[in-house]
């Protein structure tokens, strides 16, 4: 089956620093990647959608300058949380789809971000 | 119109029982309805998915029932096991544009041994 990895699996940083999270499709070419945020005991909230080589499309209310998304290749997308603050602490999950999978998204294992 | 309403919020079932989770949507353009299972600290994993051209789909102990006219679909877990204890999310998407998912609010299932 299609596998999506994320790195790191968890990260702790100080307030004001930037953190980069990588999302990789290991055995398929991801034409579209999605970034979600999930708070404890809540649902997944879509932050943005990115297509390879194009600028990401952000959902309403998501700060583009704070959450920088780059989808430079068909197997890699990165999410950079800039100037992180404690309220940015959350579980970040990416997913990916390819042209053959139509609607189906394959999810990564998630990254736990804690900002002190 | 983009919402997917999911119920119940939590569910406790005895081992061997049937777990039933329901979802409802408004947007008739949705044509793909997956169910995901998520364990604490893990990413969601696809359980089963259905399209509106069928009313039911079964994979092992998991069955989706789909009612197009009512705009509702449900997940049935037969012979529920303690290992099924997890959070379940329904979702809906369209087969055009970004294919993005609209997720339900989630159901925390606990299966008692």
Quick synopsis:
Chain A is mostly beta strands and 116 residues long. Chain A has strands at residues 4-7, 10-13, 19-25, 32-38, 45-51, 57-58, 67-73, 76-81, 90-97, 106-107, 111-115. Chain B is built from no helices and 11 strands.
Computed structural class of chain A = mainly beta
Q: What level of helicity do the residues of chain A show?
A: under 10%
Uncertain runs of chain A are none
Q: Give the termini distance of chain B in whole angstroms.
A: 39 Å
Shape of chain B: globular
Strand content of chain A: over 45%
Low-confidence blocks of residues of chain B = none
Description:
- The complex is a heterodimer of chains A (116) and B (113).
- In chain A, strands 2, 4, 5, 6, 9, 10 and 11 form a seven-stranded mixed β-sheet that branches. A four-stranded antiparallel β-sheet of chain A has the order 1-3-8-7, with no helix packed on it.
- Chain A has strands at residues 4-7, 10-13, 19-25, 32-38, 45-51, 57-58, 67-73, 76-81, 90-97, 106-107, 111-115.
- By secondary structure, chain A is mostly beta strands.
- Chain A is built from no helices and eleven strands.
- In chain A, 0% of the residues lie in helices and 51% in strands.
- In chain A, a hairpin with an 8-residue loop joins strand 9 (90-97) and strand 10 (106-107).
- With 113 residues, chain B is mainly beta.
- Chain B is 0% helix and 52% strand.
- Chain B contains no helices and eleven strands.
- Chain B has strands at 4-7, 10-14, 19-25, 33-38, 45-50, 56-59, 62-67, 72-77, 86-92, 102-103, 107-112.
- In chain B, strands 2, 4, 5, 9, 10 and 11 form a six-stranded mixed β-sheet that branches. Chain B has a five-stranded antiparallel β-sheet with strand order 1-3-8-7-6, with no helix packed on it.
- Chain B is globular.
- Chain B starts with a strand and ends with a strand.
- The relative contact order of chain B is 0.34.
- The A-B interface holds A 4, 6, 32, 34, 41-44, 46, 49, 57, 91, 93, 95, 97, 102-110, 112 and B 32, 34, 36, 41-46, 49, 89, 93, 95, 98-101, 103-106, 108.
